[in-house]
Amino acid sequence: MSDPLPELRATDADRERVAEQLRGAAAQGQLTFDELEERLDATYAARTGADLAPLTADLQVGAVAAPAAAGPGRGITVRRGPGGARWLIAIMGGCERNGRWRLAERATSLNIMGGADLDLTQAEFAGDHVELTVLSLMGGADIRVPEDLQVELSEFAFMGGNSVKPGTAPPRPGGPVLRLRLISIMGGSDVKRGPKLSRAERKALKQGGLHGRGHGHGHGG
Q: Does the model's pTM come out above 0.70?
């Protein structure tokens, strides 16, 4: 007898397809939040198609979350429903999020003698209005938001300070809203617009600026 054929490995696209169906099922009330989180963990840990199949076997066909129109910045989207990061904790350490990641409708970044690096320029929002509270005690956070994301900001600092660069691009009409609350005690947070530049991009920008200053100085002479 010949050996049985090995099970086919699941691809990233397979996992994302199942994750979308799970989020859609949760949005329609087929799954609780806890069930969604459990199944999403199993989805991203799945190695084969056989591992993925049971995760959606009991769901109604067509339960797929309808994506909202792409929001501001570098591909930010709104996908309404449960799930997403609710607690981002850095205690005497760090917490980093970048690229494609999901932020819950209400989230808290807690930084105690530590710091967070949160890049929202490609994030997925769990709602049209997302509230992020950044609480820093002898710590802080660096936060990047898309150029034209509407940000409603409130801040408080005691024996510390927050730095916010508002940017120049107007908010995109009908786009999502980020309600950002900064609370800093003996610490502080920085909020900047636009994606973080790579080392090569920073070098090129710096060189361009130096060339420009040199050119202008020559005219002055």
A: no
User: How many whole angstroms separate alpha carbon 18 and alpha carbon 68?
Assistant: 18
Paired strand residues for 113: none
3-state secondary structure 115-160: EEEEECCCCEECCCEEEEEEEEECCEEEEEECCCCEEEEEEEEECC
In the structure encoding, which two tokens stand for residue 143, read together?
Answer: 């936060």
Report the sign of the C-alpha dihedral through residues 137, 140, 101, 176, in that order. Answer: positive
36-81 pLDDT, tens digit each: 888 888 998 999 888 998 998 888 765 444 444 443 334 568 888 8
DSSP state of 7: P
Which H helix or E strand runs over 62? none
Calpha distance 5→3 (Å, rounded): 6
With 0-12 / 13-18 / 19 or more C-beta atoms within 10 angstroms meaning exposed / middle / buried, residue 187 is: buried
**Within 13 Å and on the Cβ side, how many CA atoms surround 191?**
24
Q: Where are the beta strands (DSSP E) in the chain?
A: 77-78, 85-91, 94-97, 102-112, 115-119, 124-125, 129-137, 140-145, 150-158, 163-164, 177-185, 188-193
- Nearest CA among 76, 48, 93 for reference residue 176: 76
Residues present in the chain in total? 221
